[in-house]
């Protein structure tokens, strides 16, 4: 008989509490599970305990109560130095060693683990290329010779160098300009999907949270867990007034950025819902793709002046056409699906 029990989470917080010596309670009683290969985002206002929670996972902050379990092991029973060597950690201002080259920075943990020089060199080259920095160009440079975005990429590469099962990230892109931040977010999302690393990421930016997170945990003051949900559910059905206020009034716009076109949203090719023929001058480059993002669909409809836009399936074959009514229906579908 097949064992149908759910898989053990990669990270589990059971009734975790953190109280400082002055009596300040940063986290009161937090229960949270992070699944293997998941990108979990902790989000909330300043002072809600999200960074404290993150740092209790690798014991940079010692919990006052409860249990933090990583891969089935209570972290308080583990040597903290050994624990941190198998948990990657990325912070906002990177913390690269200024007197060491990029390659030496990336190879820090492998060197501590006793990897030989050849293995470390190969892994460093692989990771620099993975984060978009050609190792032939960047390996011998020093941190001061890099832009802020390039330094952040090196920080990510260093955190991934020993192939850790868990990666903790505390406002990792906060010091980068807005355009660079969006690019880094997109690149990191691809890297995480490729490697399958379990990630806990802290941010105060709800847009970053919904863009990156498989699930999002919204915390309020004292580390109180208000809601854990995927981005669509969080935006469409906030569980509490605090979540609704934190997400803000731009929920519909954010849903456009994460929702996807479905076949049910389309009209048959050649005839719109109101009886108008598809504009004959729309070229294939104007087409959308099934399961593409709704904000792209919105932009395409706007560019077409509201005329129906062809939609192709994954093989490039016609799947139907999208009308303005279909786009509104897609938003209703997403909102209803999250109920």
Number of helices: 14
Residue share in helices?
25-40%
SSE string: EEEHEEHEHHHHHEHEHEEHHHEHEEH
CATH-defined superfamily of the largest domain: P-loop containing nucleotide triphosphate hydrolases
Largest sheet: number of strands, sense, barrel closure: 6 strands, mixed
Strand order of the largest sheet: 6-7-8-3-9-10
CATH class of the largest domain: Alpha Beta
How many individual domains? 2
Shape: globular
Summing up helix and strand content along with how strands pair, one would put the structural category as alpha/beta
**Which fold name is given in CATH as the topology of the largest domain?**
Rossmann fold
Strand percentage lies at 15-25%
How many DSSP-defined strands? 13
CATH architecture of the largest domain: 3-Layer(aba) Sandwich
Write a brief structural summary.
The chain has 339 residues and is of the alpha/beta class.
Overview of this protein structure:
With 339 residues, the chain is of the alpha/beta class. It has 2 domains: 11-248, P-loop containing nucleotide triphosphate hydrolases (Rossmann fold, 3-Layer(aba) Sandwich); 259-337, CBS domain Like. The protein contains 14 helices and 13 strands. It has helices at residues 50-57, 80-85, 102-106, 108-112, 117-130, 135-138, 148-160, 178-195, 206-212, 231-236, 241-247, 251-258, 294-303, 324-337, and strands at 11-19, 25-34, 39-43, 65-70, 73-74, 87-91, 166-170, 198-203, 215-220, 224-229, 288-289, 309-312, 318-322. The strands form 3 sheets. A 6-stranded mixed sheet has the order 6-7-8-3-9-10, sandwiched between helices. Strands 2-1-4-5 form a 4-stranded antiparallel sheet, covered by helices on one side. β4 and β5 (73-74) form a beta hairpin. α5 (117-130) crosses α7 and α12 (251-258) packs across α13 (294-303). The model is unreliable at 272-285 (pLDDT under 50).
């Amino acid at each position: 008989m097949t064992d149908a029990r759910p898989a053990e989470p990669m990270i589990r917080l059971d009734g975790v509490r953190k109280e400082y010596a002055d009596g300040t309670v940063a986290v009161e009683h937090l229960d949270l599970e992070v699944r293997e290969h998941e990108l979990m985002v902790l989000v909330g206002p300043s002072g809600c305990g999200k960074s404290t929670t993150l740092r209790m996972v690798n014991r940079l902050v010692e919990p006052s109560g409860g249990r933090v379990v990583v891969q089935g092991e209570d972290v308080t029973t583990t040597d903290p130095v050994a624990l941190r060597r198998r948990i990657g950690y990325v912070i906002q201002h990177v913390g690269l060693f200024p007197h060491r080259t990029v390659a030496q920075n990336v190879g820090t943990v492998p060197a501590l683990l006793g990897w030989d020089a050849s293995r470390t060199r190969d892994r460093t080259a692989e990771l620099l290329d993975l984060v978009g920095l050609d190792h032939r160009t960047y390996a011998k440079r020093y941190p001061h010779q890099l832009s802020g975005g390039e330094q952040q990429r090196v920080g990510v590469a260093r955190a991934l160098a020993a192939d850790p099962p868990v990666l903790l990230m505390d406002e990792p892109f906060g010091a980068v300009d807005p355009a660079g931040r969006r690019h880094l977010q997109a690149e990191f999302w691809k890297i995480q999907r490729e490697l399958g690393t379990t990630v806990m990421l802290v941010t105060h930016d709800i847009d970053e949270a919904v863009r990156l997170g498989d699930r999002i945990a919204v915390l309020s003051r004292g580390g109180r867990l208000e809601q854990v949900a995927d981005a669509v559910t969080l935006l469409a059905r906030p569980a509490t007034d605090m979540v609704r206020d934190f997400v803000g009034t731009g929920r519909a716009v954010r849903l456009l950025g994460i929702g996807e076109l479905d076949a049910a949203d389309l009209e048959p090719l050649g005839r719109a819902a109101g009886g108008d023929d598809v504009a004959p001058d729309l070229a294939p480059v104007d087409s959308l793709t099934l399961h593409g993002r709704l904000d792209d669909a919105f932009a395409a409809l706007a560019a077409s002046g509201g005329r129906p836009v062809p939609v192709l399936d994954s093989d490039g074959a016609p799947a139907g056409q999208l009308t303005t009514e279909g786009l509104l229906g897609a938003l209703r579908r997403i909102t209803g699906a999250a109920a």
